[in-house]
């Protein structure tokens, strides 16, 4: 959810850039990707089974940031929709990547279904918190 909340705060260009830089740090071998005993850090992680999710981060950040720039992060319902759009991009990238190696049925069973409900709950929570944070901060623009 950091990808989506960060994008809403930073806007489309800076949000996408932040995720691109995150991927570059990971490709350089820095331990920025989530710990996994099975999946290595670095370039191999991008080529591994979770690579599609990771590669979708900049586009998801751009989409969420673009919607936030249009005010969708200022109200609860539209904030949830903006983050849902970004999450959809992440799931699409990840599931498509997995489909290439295991087929669509297995990709959905392992890369979408087990995670979608928890991620929707996280989006609802973030969508409720974000407009409140903007009101509390009195922030009218991006790039805090």
Structure report:
Helix 1 (2-10) packs across helix 2, helix 1 (2-10) runs parallel beside helix 4 (51-72) and helix 2 (12-27) runs antiparallel to helix 4. The chain contains 7 helices and no strands. The protein has one domain: Orthogonal Bundle (Arp2/3 complex 21 kDa subunit ARPC3). The protein is 78% helix and 0% strand. It is globular and about 45 Å long. The longest helix is centred in the middle third of the chain and has 27 residues, at 76-102. It is an all-alpha fold. It has helices at 2-10, 12-27, 43-47, 51-72, 76-102, 104-111, 113-137.
Short summary of the structure?
Helix content is 78%, strand content 0%. With 144 residues, the chain is mainly alpha-helical. It has one domain: Arp2/3 complex 21 kDa subunit ARPC3.
């Amino acid at each position: 959810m950091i990808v989506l909340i960060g994008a809403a705060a930073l806007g489309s260009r800076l949000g996408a850039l932040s995720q691109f830089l995150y991927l570059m740090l990971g490709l350089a071998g820095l331990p920025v990707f989530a710990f996994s005993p099975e999946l290595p850090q670095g370039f191999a992680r991008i080529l591994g089974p979770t690579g599609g999710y990771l590669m979708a981060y900049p586009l998801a950040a751009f989409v969420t940031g673009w919607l936030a720039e249009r005010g969708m992060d200022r109200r609860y319902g539209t904030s949830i929709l903006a983050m849902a759009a970004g999450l959809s991009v992440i799931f699409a990238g990840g599931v498509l990547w997995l489909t290439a190696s295991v087929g669509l049925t297995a990709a959905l069973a392992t890369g979408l279904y087990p995670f979608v409900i928890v991620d929707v709950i996280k989006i609802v929570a973030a969508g409720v918190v974000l407009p409140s944070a903007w009101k509390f901060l009195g922030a009218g623009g991006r790039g805090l």
